[in-house]
Amino acid sequence: MTTTTLAVLVPLLPFLGALAGLLLGRTAPGFARPLAVLPTLASLALAATVAARQGGGGPVDAASELTPTGSVPIELALHIDGFAALTAVVVGTVATCVQIYSTGYLRDDPRYPSYAALVSLFTSAMLLVVYTGDLMVLLVGWEVMGICSYFLVGHYWETPEARAASLKAFLVTKLGDVPFLIGLFALAADAGSFRITRILGAVAHGGIDHPTLISLLLLAGVAGKSAQFPLHTWLPDAMAGPTPVSALIHAATMVAAGVYFVARLLPLFEASQAAMTVLAVMAAVTMTGSALAALAQDDIKRVLAYSTIGQLGYMTGALAVADRGAAVFHLLSHGAFKALLFLAAGVVIHAAGTNSLAAMSRMSHLRDRVPDAYWTMTVALLALAAIPPFSGFFSKEAVLGVAEHVVTGHTEHAPAAAGWIVLLAGLLTALLTAAYATRLWLLAFRGSGTEAPDHGRQPLTMTTVLWVLAVPSLAFGGFAFRALPDWFDGHDLTPTLTTSVLGTGVALVGGIVTYATWRHTTAYAARVPLGAVAAHPEADAGQVEAEAIASHEPAYGDVAHAADPADPGRLLLGRLHRHAAVGFHLDAVYSALFVRPVRAGASLVRFLDREVVDTYVRGAGTLPRWLGAAVRRAQTGNLQTYVSALLAGTVVLAVAAVLVATGA
Amino acid sequence: MHLAYPAVLAALLFCTGLYGVLARRNAILVLMSVELMLNAVNLNLVAFDAWLSRVAEDTLHSGQALALFTIAIAAAEIGIGLAIVLAVYRNRGTSDIDRLRDTAEGHDPDDPDSDATGRALPAPAAGEKAEATA
């Protein structure tokens, strides 16, 4: 088969799997698991084949116009360069791991068939976004991901948290998608095509008339999808979904789509200095803010959610300094270790029966209950904190190295201000990332107190994928940084000495300071008993997690944080802790800016409808009613009255007829 | 005979019938008045038929045929009418059409207070009924 055929099959197979899963899920539940895992696995194999054949050489382009669509043609186009080929492999790997993991995680869930089908559809949409060469087709995948995330985040729709989170995820991303759509139309109007190759050609020849406007409009959509400030607020709340869904959304699919989109169209963004500066500021605010917020969260998955936002900030930072190689490098390595972190967190939540770090820090021997999760999570947290030689180190140093290049004036693609912003924010975030990674690890696995409950070994499907993902988290960066430039633009991704020493230094400082604080605060843990455990600890992991999320607010007073004096993050952040725990009140700002005006508008419309429009309607009805009441009085029930009236009428008519006939 | 005599007689008969329909209270007398009106029309039909057959030499005698037709219809009508009156009288104890006003606006058949003709006056109704059967 040709490379094009293989590439078409890559998004098509999970799509067909999703269709079959949705159709057969009820009638033949036995097929649900094979239908979920096998198409994804096959598409991973095909994506790997495509990547091997493409081999970092010239991009594979193919297009077919299904039907004429008016002025700007929409074509089913493929554009597979090194970025697309490698991203598709990571998407396939993570999706396969998630599907395998879900078979164990949602073992007893009655809604498993529809869940697995939606995960397949999600994967297929992401692969479509990765491979397509036409922006309209990309938008289709983009929006399918939006609706799938709505369904998957709301998987436990019995709980109000999940319902609210799924609606929020949908609405906030749509808030970005509207400008995104307008930006796409403006771009197509300027370039005369939706094909990425032609748009980039037009950019190269200066054929785009409004690069700043278009870039900023597109950035709004990217911020929504990739959870960048100020549209990131849906992501921490999306933790109300099952853990495998979080892994899928956070590691390789939805949030990566925005970064990937900018990487594809980077020359367009480079054409506008303003857009690059906005991108840099957005990245800087996102990464520092999210790292501070991560340090204050109590829910283990919310810590990871904020860390995802921060790592995405690194990627947009790399894009802001005009190096998409570094951005996609970080996307790939982050995809591996973040998927691992989430899947391991799911195992930990199942074993502990709670998602609260405060409760876990009061359990001893949790690490002996889940040795697989303990070791793999340690690897992934080291990668997250960018400690050499784990893969996160190389990709993060690539980002920082590029920023340093821009600062020292080695490149003319990006403004030096953007370089400074990204470099300083990146170093500060490296410090904070190491701090919250250390805090997470210490609280989850170094707790003391009553012994953690023992539910036996975790399902093999759940633990195996952890080790599969631990390999790239450990070794991908070290082996790949030499080979990747051939696949990407050719920029060198080798860590530079200055940023490596600085980055690793601040990371070590962050880790050590957190450890010292933890040594100081852990003594309080015994004094303040805390902890709530799921009602059915023997149930499958999905149910345990749903119960843990639902019980967090009644048990600790908030979905995000707990009043735990033994938390080192509380001491480290000081007075900032209160604000960081609620995400710096951004939800309150949104509530004041959007929710309350919309509610007020709704009550105004309700008033207008009930009191104004209805008054007219009622007024129009009043006159006929009065007339009717008047006429009704004539109906006396006396037959003779009626006949008299009939006679009188007849006489009048007869007289009139006679008068008319005689001409009088 | 001049046409005016039967025509005037028919008009007088019709007016008598009309007065009876409009003014009498007993349903049977109203029905009798209707009969008077019908017979006034019959008289007209026959008179004009005779006049036309003489003046215009009409041989069809459609007036007479129509008069026979009206008599048949009137017989059927009075049969049904009397049966209805009898049924109403048995049911309500009265055939006074001033008191048979169930179709009046605002009349509630389930409300005993507003039903002035029926259950509200059981005693005289029973008495009248007894008289009628006697």
From TrEMBL, chain B:
Its EC number is 7.1.1.-. Its main location: membrane. Gene3D superfamilies: 1.10.287.3510. GO terms for molecular function: NADH dehydrogenase (quinone) (non-electrogenic) activity. It catalyses: a quinone + NADH + 5 H(+)(in) = a quinol + NAD(+) + 4 H(+)(out). Residues 99-134 are annotated as: Disordered. The chain crosses the membrane at residues 65-89. Keywords: Cell membrane, Membrane, NAD, Oxidoreductase, Quinone, Translocase, Transmembrane, Transmembrane helix, Transport. It is found in: Cell membrane; Membrane. It is a multi-pass membrane protein. Residues 99-109 have a biased composition (Basic and acidic residues). NDH-1 is composed of 14 different subunits. Subunits NuoA, H, J, K, L, M, N constitute the membrane sector of the complex. NCBIfam families: PRK05715.1-2 (NF004320). Belongs to the complex I subunit 4L family. NDH-1 shuttles electrons from NADH, via FMN and iron-sulfur (Fe-S) centers, to quinones in the respiratory chain. The immediate electron acceptor for the enzyme in this species is believed to be a menaquinone. Couples the redox reaction to proton translocation (for every two electrons transferred, four hydrogen ions are translocated across the cytoplasmic membrane), and thus conserves the redox energy in a proton gradient. This is NADH-quinone oxidoreductase subunit K. It comes from Streptomyces werraensis. The lineage of its organism: Bacteria, Bacillati, Actinomycetota, Actinomycetes, Kitasatosporales. The gene is nuoK.
